[in-house]
Amino acid sequence: MKKAFLDNPVRLVPVGFLATIMVGSVLLMLPISRADHEAAVFMPALFTAFSAVCVTGLITVDTPTFWTPFGQVVILGLIQVGGFGIMTLATLLALVVRKRLGLWTQLVAASETHTVNLGDVRRVLLRVAQIMLTVEAVVATVLTLRFWIAYDHEPGPALWHGVFHAISAFNNAGFSVFSDSLIGFVDDPWIIIPICAAVIIGGLGFPVIIELLRDSTMKKAWTVHVRLTVYGTLLLLVVGFVVLAAFEWDRPETLGDLPVGGKVLGALGLSVFPRTAGFNSIDYGAASSESLLVTNVLMFIGGGSAGTAGGIKITTFLVLAYAIWNEVRGHAQVTIGPRSISSSVQRQALSVALLGVAAVVLGTVALLVLTDHGLETALFECASAFATVGLSMGITGDLPASAELVLIALMFMGRVGTITIAASLALRTQRRLFRVPEERPIIG
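-> structure tokens emitted (444 positions)
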């Protein structure tokens, strides 16, 4: 029974994440990880490890003041490992050490990277590592120079701040070594734009990035997945920018007191960061209810599949949107451009979306029961945790341990649950050799 469980590569993904989280928790409990060098505290270490590996960014303690440089290095390592994928990283290590990949190892890597052709796993993994390190290096260089030249940071701290935020941004983690995250840089284009670029690139998903690099000028050759991800990302970014800018433009608590350029950069952050990045360049506790609702929607949808973003994913959302549109038009077949979408893909998308809704709703109810916070605040916190975003209205550090465990469950489910659910649904597809009588219940 145990062997049968571990033989399924899809099931190994959450096991790998849990093992890394436990290791990270132990390291963060060491006195060398805490700024006061006191005895280990279990819950802050556990919550931070879950948040880092699940690339969420929710924190119960202040990262720059509670953790030592060693603890911050541990957090950064957990972010990188979590973003790259435990099984993907393990496969790369096996490739380096053994110079070959066995079928079992390739299956494990394929379940994490969504690679279909097992023969391509070696090439894809190396390409993924190259993309990740290149983007992080470029963004880290820009940020380091900016911190050094414009903010008079010493070269060492400037480099550390640049590297930390570059890795956190590309992995859509949202951890920051500044107590107010990016609020102090809301109108600095040399900080906001590189971080937003890293967030967007990491959130596209590695299959999309690889295909764009290969066929960037051949839009007609793009697959449906690439089209949905690229155009869906652009659509949500534009809609989020316009709507959130309209709600916050003249609001003095957020963007109202900034110059026009600062307002534009602030609105850009409002649109990009909810796409599971978790940085905040404004105080969400002061944002309008309309902005919080729109942000909840952006967080829940998330970014691209097989990338560092969370949420139910853009493709899931758009497949369901196209299914509704085709149903309204009376089409028997769901089509996206010149291609049709199989009923099995539609069922998988519906399952992932509804399970996501159920997780957020149940988590919100739990927070309402366990705390004194209202619906708006509890919903925002749970949506942020499930979508592995990391945005908060400032309540995470004041939650009781029971509520922290609720958020931990949501973060873990959001990081590995949708992957496991979608993959298991695809792998368990079986052809029936018979058909049962049909019946049509009344819908709507």
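The chain has one domain: 2-427.
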